Backbone:
């Protein structure tokens, strides 16, 4: 875990007291590389000048919103994202997860819960593994170190969640992986209620890995069960 504690985290919120509280909490847990920003402009400046390992984004910001900021960050960073907001409406939660965000916490929250979620997300995303770094799926190559998919002359990036899911499917290739197992891999023990988000991520993976995403040959749906990654003709 020591290596993960050295990861740089950017927290974006327009409440100075909350920023200080989160910074103090993370510092007390051993996270010494925590940056803070009160708005989108400052957040983008920091994210472009330094390599962030994780973003915690408030939805309500004075010069935009967390969803807009997320889209801007995705133009140059694939680091995982947690949305932090006072609004608990289902449509906001679904919107954030549909964009590809990794978690969503509603204010007010328990400090320990935020720390546990950050640690779990960093562990799932960055924990070292003795696995291959290139996955060959059809005419696509997945580079797990750079979170990218190459096919022909085109290369596209994977989000942190997409990378976790394709690695889980690869570990069990040519076998069905249940929805629960995939959600557990991507969201940890707090995976209940993420089934719709899983479907969104699988659709995005198909768009990046399949010749015909609407008629997939490699990421196959096992109706009522989960998904199977087919790497050879069966």
Residues:
């Amino acid at each position: 875990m020591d290596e993960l504690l050295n990861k740089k985290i950017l927290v974006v919120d327009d409440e100075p007291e909350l920023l200080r509280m989160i910074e103090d909490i993370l510092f007390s847990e051993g996270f010494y590389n925590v940056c803070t920003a009160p708005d989108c402009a400052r957040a983008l400046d920091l994210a472009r000048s330094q390599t962030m390992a994780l973003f915690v984004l408030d939805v309500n910001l004075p010069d935009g919103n967390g969803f807009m900021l997320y889209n801007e960050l995705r133009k140059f960073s694939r680091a995982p994202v947690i949305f932090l907001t006072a609004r608990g409406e289902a449509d906001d939660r679904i919107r954030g997860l549909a964009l590809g965000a990794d978690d969503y916490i509603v204010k007010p929250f328990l400090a320990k819960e935020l720390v546990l979620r950050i640690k779990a997300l960093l562990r799932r995303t960055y924990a070292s593994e003795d696995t291959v770094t290139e996955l060959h799926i059809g005419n696509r190559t997945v580079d797990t170190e750079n979170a990218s998919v190459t096919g022909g002359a085109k290369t596209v990036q994977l989000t942190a969640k997409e990378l976790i899911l394709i690695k889980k499917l690869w570990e069990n290739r040519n076998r069905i992986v249940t929805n629960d197992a995939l959600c557990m891999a991507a969201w940890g023990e707090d995976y209940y209620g993420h089934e719709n988000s899983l479907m969104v991520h699988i659709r995005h993976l198909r768009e990046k890995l399949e010749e015909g995403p609407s008629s997939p040959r490699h990421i196959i749906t096992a109706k009522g069960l989960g998904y199977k990654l087919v790497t050879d003709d069966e």
Observations:
- The longest strand covers residues 54-58.
- The radius of gyration is 18 Å.
- The chain has a mean pLDDT of 87.
- The CA atoms of residues 163 and 178 lie 17 Å apart.
